[in-house]
User: Which sequence fits this backbone?
């Protein structure tokens, strides 16, 4: 990946990620636009903690391969250009594959309801159960 910090990315909070992740807000929610769009970059092997959203979140894969898992279901893979629509309250995680970094756009809708409810980290065993 390019030098992300030179392109406006900031380090994602390490409390919610295993590995290194970076984000850049593309559209910030305000009184008129109740939607937040961010670009999120994951180093290879990086994933976020289990979490839920109070409203829908849509991911669109920009680079690499996105791994995604809903609690109790197998890990799914999403390629460049593919999208995932997370429904409210569904416990899940997402991140890069062990082999390559990944970048996705994250679109959080109805931000007046909140953005994310972070939970426990994804264990190595859970991440590697492909």
Assistant:
């Amino acid at each position: 990946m390019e030098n992300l910090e030179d392109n406006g990315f900031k380090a994602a909070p390490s409390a919610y990620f295993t590995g290194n992740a970076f984000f850049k807000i593309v559209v910030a929610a305000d009184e008129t636009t109740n939607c937040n769009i961010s670009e999120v970059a994951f180093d290879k092997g990086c994933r976020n903690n289990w979490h839920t959203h109070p409203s829908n979140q849509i991911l669109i894969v920009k680079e690499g391969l996105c791994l995604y898992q809903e609690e109790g279901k197998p890990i799914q893979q999403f390629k460049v250009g593919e999208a995932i629509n997370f429904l409210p309250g569904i416990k899940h995680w997402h991140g890069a594959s062990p082999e390559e970094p990944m970048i996705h756009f994250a679109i959080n809708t109805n931000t007046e309801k909140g953005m994310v409810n972070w939970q426990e980290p994804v264990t190595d065993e859970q991440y590697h159960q492909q």
About this structure: The helical segments are 124-127. The first helix runs from residue 124 to 127. The mean pLDDT is 91.
